[in-house]
Amino acid sequence: MVNKKRVIQFKTPVYVEERGTAVGPKEGSGPLGHGFDYVFPSLLCGEKDWQTAEKKMTEKAITYCLHKQRLKDNHLDLFIAGDLTNQSTVSSQIARNLHVPFIGSYSACATAIENCIVAGMWINGGGARHVLCASSSHIGGCEKQFRFPIEFAQQKPDTAQTTVTGAGAIILGRHQSMIQMTEGLLGKVIDLGINNPYELGAAMAPAAADTLLTYLQETEQKPSDFDLILTGDLARSGSEIFKKLLREHGVIVSENYDDCGVMMYGTNQQVLAGGSGAGCCATVVFGHIFNEILANRLKRVLVIATGALHSANTVQQHKTIPCIAHAVVFERRGN
Amino acid sequence: MVNKKRVIQFKTPVYVEERGTAVGPKEGSGPLGHGFDYVFPSLLCGEKDWQTAEKKMTEKAITYCLHKQRLKDNHLDLFIAGDLTNQSTVSSQIARNLHVPFIGSYSACATAIENCIVAGMWINGGGARHVLCASSSHIGGCEKQFRFPIEFAQQKPDTAQTTVTGAGAIILGRHQSMIQMTEGLLGKVIDLGINNPYELGAAMAPAAADTLLTYLQETEQKPSDFDLILTGDLARSGSEIFKKLLREHGVIVSENYDDCGVMMYGTNQQVLAGGSGAGCCATVVFGHIFNEILANRLKRVLVIATGALHSANTVQQHKTIPCIAHAVVFERRGN
Question: Where are the transmembrane segments (chains A, B) (predicted)?
């Protein structure tokens, strides 16, 4: 018999041994700015191109991870990383300097959580004790590659999202800590026919709803069992569609629901519908949310990271956008 | 204490439940052509663009997998896939039609074997019973994206490789079969400073040598313990460098060594140094090599898939090419 249950319960406990975050100036001056480890004062991070800037930012996040934990990279068993640049070269170039076995991943803006789930399974399967995961995005690199260079100052509709300039790193492992990753759920790809890359929130909302409904059904839990249900980066328009889709299934999420793309920026910041990018969920969760868990203001958080699996090429071909949402549960351990 | 051993021994046995391969006309008319499940008579596979052709080819390989096994996709617990298109959209579009939890992977031409190792760990960790993995490449899509459209008929040096038009799919799981995947080794990223994308064999050879030397050292085996040691796609020039690097460490591989990129094409075919691409190792191993194992002409094969983790962008920036090599052992079970 095939076990049809999709929710993975990590039998060997998986802990957040350490995390590090680095962001750009706009993210640093937003409402969560104080919770990041490092804020770069300029988008170029002292480099000459966006890609090298993103690499420097991710290396900064990883350095915070390793220094805080007093781990050297030779204590790591595995490095899992992915980003939005073509062929994920930011991650590969970082892997070159780490000298650690490397898994390249790609799940668009859901990459950080795909990485966590794969790391968790690796630890449960006995293949690793300490796994470093990283993911990132940079508005300069993303706009140039997916749309137009930012210097072009392209006009966009209100439903468009702003790519978060940020990198998040996390070490998951067997050393007990205050934050445990208890469960994971890999999403299925869902595509309800949206082909407009300025409507990514609407495109991704059905995948997020499917993942949440599957999780609640399989575990026989309800939204109120969590202090916070957090979607990856549906942003303002996508979050409303997400809540509406859930209501159609009789599931209400309201007070204990938020979205990383909404939380990242203040209402006074010009970001259209909110944030997105592989660095969005990574920095909000590994920064602000983990701070809240450590401060005992949150005890149990369900993170549903969303990703739009399109490219500049598929947009030009007017293809519809396949979307995915992966979920994990982070819980506070101890008092 | 951290276990520094990098070789993964799959404690829960992992079997090749099924495999499927589909290739383009040049690969079909090569010396391994009879061993593939399906040969498309034209590069466009009846479609209007290279990307859709690659998708159709991969779907064909997956269909062979599922039909031979009489499995429906709802028996699958997980789909792991990656390809060389920007943002790996060929794989994502296939995932959309499969309705199976999806992990997106990226390891350039080593993607097929990265997928196998992740699948094996998933099965060992208790997260899945049947995992479908796929990877692919298409000369039309790759040349357009990484270099110039093939219509441009660009001249290249003899060390350049020809992208294999091919897709390989495999179902790994717990159902006992004649072929078992017994061990895996994830590579470290190695970059000795080559930045010429027409020298990928030379760029990747050090990573392949590092992976083989690590494997032999950790397991205290010698090359003659295998019927075949097979590199992914070093092609002719890279294979010679690989053998030379090994000789410097006192390790001789000769009679029982071959390379997928060399094996794929005949000496009468115009392919420069040989084949490459995420579909190269996938089709040669899942097609020809598994046929040889089933026919009892090979019993124990070490596959070292190689990948060059560059992009068109990093080439334009004259950045050096980070390379990786992942290894797995496939063994015949039964008589």
Answer: none
